[in-house]
Amino acid sequence: MVKLSPLEIVMAATIPLVWGMGFVFAKGAINHFPPILLMAFRFSLTAIVLVWFAKIPRGSLKQIFKIAIVAAAIQYSLTFTGLKGLEAGLASLIVQLEVPFLVILGALFLHEKPGWRKWIGIAISFGGVALMTQQQELSGSALSIILVITGCFSWAVGQVMVRKLENVAGMQVTAWVAVFAAPQLFIMSAIFEHGQLDAIKTAEPLV
């Protein structure tokens, strides 16, 4: 068994803490902004910051454009539209289904061979989500739950597509997915949402 140093333990504990806080802040922002518009702003900021540090992945732009549609535009639209109708804590737990979905798709399309322990873990994860979402008080949130779960599946499909990329660094993928996803999300927001200008005009700091 690998023994972690105190610093590594702190870092390992900090990552899920920061990740979970992201859902809490996102929930607050979504209560004011249309969720797809909010994600468009998020990817715009990411693109503006990162694009200067990532070379253009020539020869892979077409694939990255497709990845942006599946793993960013569709996935974040579904997940954060679903988050609007759920508590942040519940949504953050449901989103953990991204991992078992990826393991299943990896076995189907990437010829990966998960061991029996992983299959048991997958069964437990789906069973746990099913147990949580079948509670009586959640009956009115069925659509939101379906949206988040579908977003998880879309993310997993996107990661399979990413794994098939060749000679493209992680920073390049992140930066150029953001470059493509931002306009895709603005278009989707214009089609499916309303009240964008009012939300921008009346926006206030979350903290």
Verbal overview:
It is a single chain. The chain is mainly α and 207 residues long. It has one domain. Helices cover 73% and strands 0% of the residues. It has nine helices and no strands. The protein has helices spanning 6-30, 35-50, 61-83, 88-94, 98-109, 116-133, 142-163, 170-192, 196-201. Helix 2 (35-50) crosses helix 3 (61-83) and helix 2 runs antiparallel to helix 8. The chain is globular, with a radius of gyration of 18 Å. The model has no long low-confidence stretch (mean pLDDT 86).
SSE inventory with pairings:
Blueprint: H1 6-30, H2 35-50, H3 61-83, H4 88-94, H5 98-109, H6 116-133, H7 142-163, H8 170-192, H9 196-201
What's this model, at a glance?
By secondary structure, the protein is mostly helical. The protein has helices spanning 6-30, 35-50, 61-83, 88-94, 98-109, 116-133, 142-163, 170-192, 196-201.
Mean model confidence by pLDDT:
86
- Work out the helix count: 9
Distance between the termini: 42 Å
* Global shape: globular
Number of domains: 1
**Quick one: how many beta strands?**
0
Low-confidence stretches: none
Beta fraction of the residues? under 5%
Helix fraction? over 70%
Major β-sheet profile = none
Task: From the structure above, extract its key features.
9 helices; 207 residues; globular; 0% strand; 73% helix; mainly alpha
